[in-house]
Design brief:
The protein is an alpha/beta fold. The protein is built from 13 helices and 15 strands. Helix 6 links the parallel strand 7 and strand 8. The protein is elongated and about 70 Å long.
Length: 418
């Protein structure tokens, strides 16, 4: 009852003063992680790669979780399995519903059997995690490292061995997920923890930023973004469908780094300043949100999260794209939009210059609504003058369309086994 009264008081305060509660969601999330509880595993026959995931639910997965699962599966299939390794996925939020396990789904997609994979689902009051001397732990979210640390310390104490390095899959600069706060400081400190760390970094741009920040590590391997295999199949469709007067934009108000409100303002200014706005339809994908007003007869449709097949259909239709990310990572949506032939307005950031990726990528000099709107007006006018302009754009990074990642996998395997 006391807790309920407290929550009602905070909610009333928020309504009265018109601002969020003083208890910020990203702060509480950063302190809500759970730790693994280790117990001795007498099986010492082989090495085991353990993937620490916040969830294994396919239904709720975005790109980060998919990469956390798919990359180790590819690594296991092509590099580690023949060397006697096994693989285990650890879900920190319990077992997903039947048919919703992303690890089993992606394993099947690449030709692995369910029997190839071990699973552990953390439950409150449940069985501890068996830990052997040869276990290696890999995680992506910064607090996954905190979850894994009891198991790593257990190894050192139980077996009297040197500390086993934690393997961090760096998919973005995660301290920046939080405003300056205790969560920010914890996230940043996790990159320099007093424990050996090896890092596997998603993109050269992000690796350069990580290095620029001076963070410690005992080895680094870099892999580059590639077009999702299902999207690559859709891109290969011939003949290519004709482009329509549609602006496809990445609308995710729940993720700060995707800059939803700058995107929204830019589209509203575009609709006020572009004389042909009434001929265009705006399509929002990524996350459901309330529609917002536009001028000049422009129409907005909010689709939210799509299947890959639905997303590919929207990519084929869109003549113009808009996708922002306040991050050194290149970000997947603008790359996908550009490669599907959309003139894509986007932003650069620190070590990231998206103009080096594709002819169709149009980073603005200043990522404010006015410059973004100007970029959209220019792209729409270009399409009105030449409806094939985006389809003639060329990729500038051959590896993005290269399905094979064997060289990268070999480098990552060598890092993990060193």
């Amino acid at each position: 009852m006391k807790e309920l009264k407290k929550r009602l008081r905070l909610a009333a305060r928020s309504l009265i003063y018109g601002r969020p509660s003083k208890y910020y969601e990203d702060e509480t999330i950063a302190f809500s992680f759970k730790s693994l509880v280790p117990t001795l595993d007498p099986d010492t026959r082989n090495k085991r790669l353990n993937i620490v995931a916040s969830s294994l639910s396919r239904r709720n997965a975005f790109g980060g979780l998919s990469t956390l699962i798919s990359l180790p599966l590819e690594l296991y299939k092509h590099e580690l399995k023949d060397q006697g390794w096994s693989i285990r996925f650890i879900s920190m939020s319990g077992e997903p519903d039947a048919g919703d396990n992303i690890a089993l789904y992606l394993a099947g997609r690449i030709g692995l059997e369910a029997s190839d994979i071990e699973m552990y689902f953390r439950r409150e009051g449940g069985a501890p995690l068996p830990v052997a001397k040869s276990d290696v732990f890999l995680g992506s979210l910064w607090f996954s490292q905190s979850s894994a640390m009891p198991a790593l310390r257990f190894q050192q104490e139980q077996f009297g061995s040197a500390p086993t390095p934690y393997v961090a899959l760096i998919q973005d600069y995660e301290p920046a997920f939080h405003p300056w706060s205790s969560a920010y400081m914890l996230a940043e400190a996790s990159y320099d923890i007093d424990w050996p760390r090896k890092v596997v970094v998603n993109s050269r741009e992000l690796a350069d930023f990580y290095t620029k920040k001076g963070h410690k590590h005992q080895g680094m391997a870099v892999f580059e973004p590639k077009l999702h295999v299902d999207l690559a199949k859709a891109l290969a469709t011939t003949p290519r469908p004709p482009k329509q007067r549609r602006i496809l934009f990445y609308g995710r108000p729940g993720i700060r780094r995707n800059c939803f409100f700058a995107t929204k303002s830019a589209l509203q200014i575009w609709s006020q300043t572009y004389e042909g706005a009434g001929n265009w339809e705006l399509i929002s994908v990524g996350e459901k949100h309330d529609p917002f007003e536009l001028s000049g007869g422009a129409r907005l449709t909010v689709l939210g999260k799509l299947t890959l097949e639905q997303y590919a259909d929207e990519l084929h239709k869109a003549a113009v794209g808009l996708s922002l990310m306040a991050s050194p990572h290149p970000s997947y949506p603008p790359l996908e939009m550009a490669h599907f032939g959309a003139l894509t307005v986007c932003n650069n950031f620190e070590c990231k210059d998206l103009s080096l990726w594709h002819d169709n990528l149009r980073p603005v000099a200043i990522a404010d609504p006015e410059h973004l709107a100007e970029g959209l007006v220019t792209a729409c006018r270009q399409f009105d003058e030449d409806q094939g302009v985006g389809l003639s754009g060329q990729s500038l990074k051959p590896h993005y369309l290269n399905e094979s990642n064997r060289e990268e996998l070999t480098r990552i395997a060598a890092l993990i086994q060193a």
